[in-house]
Design goal:
This protein has 9 helices and 8 strands. By secondary structure, the protein is an alpha/beta fold. It starts with a helix and ends in a 5-residue tail after the last strand. The structure holds adenosine monophosphate.
Amino acid sequence: MKEAADRFCRQDRTIGFVPTMGYLHEGHLRLVEEARRLADTVVVSIFVNPTQFGPDEDYEKYPRDPEKDRALARAAGTDILFMPHKDELYPANFQTYITQEHLPNHLCGLSRPVHFRGVMTIVAKLLNIVKPHYAVFGEKDYQQLVIVRQMAADLNFDTQIVGVPTVREADGLAMSSRNKYLSPDQRQSALSLSRALSRAKEMVENGETRSRAIIEKAAQAIASAPEAAIDYVRICDPESLEDVEAIDRPVRMALAVKIGNTRLIDNILLTPKRS
Ligand code: AMP
């Protein structure tokens, strides 16, 4: 991969990079499309990164389908599909990790304490290997996007971090590899996430500016869905991820909910009505 990247560089060909954990869906393919639009060459990586999973999380059973992924990535116009082996990226004496002071201390970072350290470490490693001009990430994982952008700026990576809006199923559910875990009934309950966010957007469009009122409504709606257990529902500053009390500028509403054993996340931009 490093040799190929150097070759593209010598040919003055720009590289657009899409890091994924595989089990590709249309959300991933939208990122590939964006990378193609931006760059001459598209690299997609598939690597289920062990360091971003906590000890009680789903690393072992995370869905994998390399053959289908290969076909989908190729059909979407991927030039290089990079599928490194775990031991290549984490040899036995591996001991260096990236951490960040503030952004991981919010939202998902509170219930997944090692997650973003693992994410930053693997993204930094992949950026050093692929040396892309652009790296494309989904807004679906909004905190991850903000954290990676901060890391790339803080550590002077030569890569422009690009965000792409969330791709949803026809009924609103944000696409995710983990949706595969849901039974038909749980799939129905999972709709409470996107519905709560749409309702929040409507409230803001109708003039509501109090975060607390919006969060309460959303939490009630989600809590009444069968098998749903809320991790968090928050409205925060889109850059610092600090809670905001009044929606007087564009903000992010983000939530994480367990449906049975499956942890799902979603988020939306809330823009106040112009007075
Ligand atoms: P993952 O394979 O889940 O680690 O995701 C790889 C990349 O795809 C990340 O940048 C995600 O934010 C992005 N992604 C995942 N689901 C979606 C979606 N529904 N819409 C847009 N991007 C997504």
